[in-house]
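Milestone 3.1: sequence recovery, worked example.
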């Protein structure tokens, strides 16, 4: 935390970029990216069980994905 404070003070623009693009980001698997693309075009269908089969998600993986995208 102390190092973060020093960087914030000395390099505020670099810290802001790091905060936005590293600390404020998430990592998605290939399955999650495919599901997100599908989700974009088929929102009502996505809360059903279809994506579990379509993309090969386990129930736990699906629930984690839904949390990641804030749905």
């Amino acid at each position: 935390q102390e190092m973060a404070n020093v960087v914030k003070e000395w390099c505020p623009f670099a810290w802001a970029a790091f905060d936005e693009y590293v600390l404020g980001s998430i990592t998605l698997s290939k399955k999650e990216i495919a599901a997100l693309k599908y989700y974009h075009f088929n929102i009502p269908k996505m809360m059903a069980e279809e994506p579990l089969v379509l993309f090969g998600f386990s129930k736990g993986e699906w629930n984690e994905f839904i949390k990641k995208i804030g749905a």
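The mean pLDDT is 81. DSSP finds five helices and no strands in the chain.
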